[in-house]
Amino acid sequence: MGTIDKHIFEQAGARGCSNSDYNLAITTCCKSYIVEDDELNDVYFDPKDVSKVLDLTSLEKCPICSKDDWDYNIFDEWPRDETPWSWAYHPNRSIVENWIKKKTTPSSQ
Ligand SMILES: [Zn+2]
């Protein structure tokens, strides 16, 4: 399951198919947050307009800064900071946040 909520994201206009999972990612070149569809190899780069979508397989430049040699890293869990994509996080986010909090709180308390 992706870090982005499929239902919310598709209601907002994402074009994914029934097998699509959406993952929050960050570009290595300009540290911009993007969302990838790991089924269709699509990348969403505008959190205010998810109808803007690009096909990864034909995308040679970073959609944000246009760098030629670009890449991105997928988040396994939600970053603790707010991102422009926070509106589309999975509803179970609070569970994950509690889990992160427990992991980082000293056990003596
Ligand atoms: Zn970039």
Q: Tell me the Rg in angstroms.
A: 15 Å
Strand order of the largest sheet: 4-3-2-1-5
Query: Termini distance?
Result: 33 Å
Number of domains: 1
Number of strands: 5
Task: Give a short account of the largest sheet.
Answer: 5 strands, antiparallel
Helix content: 10-25%
Helix/strand-derived class? alpha+beta
Q: Provide the low-confidence segments as ranges.
A: none
Shape: globular
Discrete helix count: 2
Average of the residue pLDDT scores? 87
How much of the residues is beta strand, in percent? 15-25%
Helix-strand pattern: HEEEEEH
- Which ions and ligands are bound to the chains? zinc ion
In short:
With 109 residues, the chain is α+β, with helices and mostly antiparallel strands.
Task: Characterise the protein shown here.
It is a single chain. With 109 residues, the protein is an alpha+beta fold. The chain has one domain. It has two helices and five strands. A five-stranded antiparallel sheet has the order 4-3-2-1-5, with no helix packed on it. A hairpin with an 8-residue loop joins β3 (42-44) and β4 (53-55). The N and C termini lie far apart (33 Å). The model has no long low-confidence stretch (mean pLDDT 87). Residues 27, 29-30, 32, 62, 64-65, 67, 70 line the site of zinc ion.
Using brief descriptors, characterize the structure shown.
109 residues, alpha+beta, 5-stranded antiparallel beta sheet, 2 helices, 17% helix, 18% strand, binds zinc ion
